[in-house]
Backbone:
């Protein structure tokens, strides 16, 4: 009897020890939990999610299944799932612009995640603006997106090139301050016979093209004297996309298409990166991936020569209120938070919400996200202060000079006073589809810039009326960080 | 005696109900939706607009452009498929050496998924990295805007359609050719009829019924083209290569404008029916002559 009791005690003790060991290994313990995440097709973002998944699995013993969809299919797949309230996805990764459409179906971020060291480390542009919708937080940034300028340092520092440029244009060859200078530089380096072209931008419908156009236009339309009026008048919700600032932006975007590689009109962002990394172009604009890919010797012919700067700007900006050009004493840089960086959220219908938010915490932790940010092709660009402050982290891929310029451009752009936010509105695809169509026509020379943008404005106003002007106005003001209109 | 046996209802009604559930009900639901202003994103409560969606569509230049583009692709592609397919079938029927190998090889494109074919085509026509432009460059020719110019892009889509679906025509026409009686040709040869005369006097008229069926099937299928265009051009540049099905997809699954998309689907159905009925009406006198 005594022997049996002793045996039972020993067995219980062993079981308890084993259990405590399991719990220690899995903290918090999500053994048996499998999270399904909707993502765009990798490597961009999907590989970052997998990196986070591996870390989360090590920590919690839970599993993450990343389901990938082509970019053009991601929105319909997520919308269909959310509106049907099915629990297909425990997490969805998406563009901030889609947030207004998704908000009714998303769970709020737990309050305990909205404070602390890791929370404060997120750049305010994301934490206080892009992650917020009508005062609440439904999503977490997992990528930082702002358009910056990339150039070939070897060409820009070549004394022969510098002299020739100055002789032709009358000013020094350097990263451009204005879009006119940007186009001058592109024109100067346009040498097809030597396999070198001026610039590379996305011009293909469905190939992120309109964000590149928005970047040009931001310099002329994001007026600090009338904030939030870049896309719509924040008082009336009248479309602004056909005002003289936008027309100027489109004219320059079209000019850029003519100083690029042959058939640049078929370029999406992927082709832009290939052209830059292949050393085919002297300069380019785009997301931070360009710099990281171009610096990677495995993927690039110009590693060690990658310069970065903020987007060019302008010293005159259209004022949507006075309907006049406002003149500024100096050039105002025009950074544009194109796309705004991938976000991740947890649907209300999800069955593992607690585990899902815990995964978000791991995925976006400074350590895991910092690693993703320096991995070429992960699609993750800096969105935390620690990402841009840690020069040592970036020394793995950049030379000190490259790192200084790259991180400086990222940080200065995100924190610029006049940084332009991307449009976020319910029915986003309806608004951007017509932009894509008319841009295609304008770039192909089938219509004039003014006529193309007049057509877009007409459709935007019609859509706004159809969706409800008051509702859209309230949403637009919220997206632009403006107080509700009384 | 068996006709009045009530047991027949046990066998018939489940089938009728299944057909109703999977075919008629969605059609009726879709027709009802076409009379509503109904958006899923942003959520707008359904509102009856009767023929409002149809009127908007008929006034929409993009709709007419999609009809024009689809018709252009369908008619040119099917015309070429039929001509080339018939010619290849005649060649194969003439017992050329290696005929069996040709027959199998020619069928391969048809067995591939259109999405895969379109992806390969997109790579081939890629402006900078595609082999076609590189080949042209070797001969000192200029880089051609295969997918960035509306006319070229349409040409590329038609070329892919022809490449993929000509084998179907070959297969059908070859089957038809092999059923033709030998004695008619022997008689024609006794009369010293040339090969050309034999073709126009015997082969073509005798294959007219099967030709009519093949062209009809291909025409209807071509009107439904979506995947090839979606992958190769996305409907661009602008809307130069946007077909009716792609337009419906954009409205339905990008903008979730359900009422409008349902109306578009019904207009598409009407257009296809008109084309089909007209085609059969035009061919009827010729087909009846053959009976």
Residues:
């Amino acid at each position: 009897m005594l022997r049996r009791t002793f045996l039972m005690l020993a067995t219980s003790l062993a079981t308890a020890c084993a259990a405590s060991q399991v719990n220690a290994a899995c903290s918090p313990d999500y053994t048996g939990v499998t999270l399904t995440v909707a993502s765009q097709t990798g490597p961009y973002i999907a590989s970052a999610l997998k990196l986070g998944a591996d870390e989360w699995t090590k920590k919690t013993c839970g599993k993450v299944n990343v389901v990938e969809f082509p970019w053009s299919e991601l929105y319909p797949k997520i919308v269909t799932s959310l509106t049907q309230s099915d629990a297909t996805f425990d997490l969805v990764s998406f563009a901030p612009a889609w947030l207004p459409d998704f908000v009714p179906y998303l769970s709020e971020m737990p309050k305990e995640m909205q404070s602390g060291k890791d929370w404060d480390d997120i750049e305010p542009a994301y934490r206080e603006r892009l992650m917020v919708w009508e005062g609440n937080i439904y999503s977490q940034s997992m990528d930082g997106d702002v358009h910056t300028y990339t150039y070939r340092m070897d060409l820009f520092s070549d004394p022969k090139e510098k002299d020739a440029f100055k002789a032709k244009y009358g000013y020094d060859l350097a990263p451009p301050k204005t879009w006119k200078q940007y186009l001058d530089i592109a024109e100067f380096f346009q040498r097809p016979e030597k396999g070198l072209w001026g610039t590379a931008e996305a011009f293909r419908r469905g190939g992120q093209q309109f964000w590149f156009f928005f970047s040009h236009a931001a310099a002329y339309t994001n007026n600090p004297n009338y904030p939030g009026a870049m896309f719509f008048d924040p008082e009336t919700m009248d479309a602004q996309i056909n005002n003289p600032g936008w027309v100027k932006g489109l004219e320059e975007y079209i000019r850029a298409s003519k100083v690029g590689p042959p058939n640049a009109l078929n370029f999406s962002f992927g082709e832009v990166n290939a052209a830059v990394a292949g050393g085919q172009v002297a300069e380019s604009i785009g997301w931070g991936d360009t710099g990281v890919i171009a610096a990677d010797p495995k993927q690039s012919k110009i590693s060690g020569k990658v310069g970065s700067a903020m987007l060019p700007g302008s010293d005159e900006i259209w004022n949507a209120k006075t309907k006049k050009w406002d003149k500024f004493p100096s050039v105002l840089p025009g950074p544009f938070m194109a796309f705004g960086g991938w976000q991740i959220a947890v649907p209300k219908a999800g069955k593992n919400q607690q585990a899902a938010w815990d995964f978000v915490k791991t995925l976006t932790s400074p350590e895991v996200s910092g690693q993703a940010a320096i991995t070429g092709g992960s699609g993750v660009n800096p969105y935390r202060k620690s990402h841009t402050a840690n020069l040592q982290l970036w020394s793995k891929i950049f030379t000190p000079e490259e790192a200084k310029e790259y991180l400086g451009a990222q940080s200065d752009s995100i924190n610029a006073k006049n940084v332009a936010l991307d449009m976020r509105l319910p029915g986003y695809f309806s608004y951007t589809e017509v932009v894509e169509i008319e841009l295609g026509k304008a770039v192909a020379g089938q219509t004039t810039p003014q006529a193309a943008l007049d057509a877009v404005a007409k459709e935007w106003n019609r859509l706004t009326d159809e969706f409800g002007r008051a509702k859209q106005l309230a949403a637009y003001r919220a997206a632009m960080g403006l107080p509700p209109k009384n | 005696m068996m006709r009045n046996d009530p047991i027949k209802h046990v066998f018939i009604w489940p089938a009728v109900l299944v057909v109703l559930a999977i075919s008629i009900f969605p059609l009726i639901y879709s027709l009802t939706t076409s009379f509503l202003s109904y958006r899923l994103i942003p959520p707008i409560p359904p509102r009856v607009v009767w023929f409002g969606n149809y009127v908007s569509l008929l006034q929409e230049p993009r709709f007419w452009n999609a009809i024009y583009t689809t018709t252009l692709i369908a008619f040119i592609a099917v015309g070429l498929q039929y001509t080339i397919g018939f010619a290849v079938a005649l060649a194969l029927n003439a017992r050329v050496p290696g005929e069996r190998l040709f027959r199998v090889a020619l069928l391969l494109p048809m067995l591939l998924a259109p999405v895969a074919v379109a992806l390969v085509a997109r790579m081939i026509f890629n402006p900078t990295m595609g082999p076609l432009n590189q080949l042209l460059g070797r001969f000192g020719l200029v880089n051609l805007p295969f997918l960035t110019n509306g006319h070229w892009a349409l040409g590329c889509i038609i070329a892919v359609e022809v490449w993929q679906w000509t084998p179907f025509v070959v297969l059908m026409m070859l089957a038809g050719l092999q059923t033709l009686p030998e004695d008619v040709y022997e008689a024609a040869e006794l009369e010293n009829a040339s090969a050309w005369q034999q073709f126009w006097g015997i082969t073509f008229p005798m294959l007219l019924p099967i030709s009519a069926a093949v062209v009809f099937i291909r025409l209807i299928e071509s009107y439904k083209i979506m995947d090839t265009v979606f992958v190769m051009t996305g409907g661009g540049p602008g809307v130069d290569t946007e077909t009716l099905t792609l337009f419906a997809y954009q409205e339905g699954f990008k903008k979730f404008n359900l009422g409008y998309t349902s109306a578009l689907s019904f207009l598409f159905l009407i257009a296809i029916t008109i084309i089909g009925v007209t085609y059969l009406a035009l061919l009827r006198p010729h087909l009846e002559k053959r009976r």
Q: What stands out?
A: Chain A touches chain B at residues 72, 75-76, 79, 83, 100-101, 104, 204-206, 261-263, 265-266, 271, 274-275, 426-427, 429-430, 433, 436-438, 440-441, 443-444, 446, 466-468, 471 (CB under 8 Å). The two ends of chain A are 82 Å apart (CA to CA). Confidence is low (pLDDT under 50) at residues 16-22 of chain A.
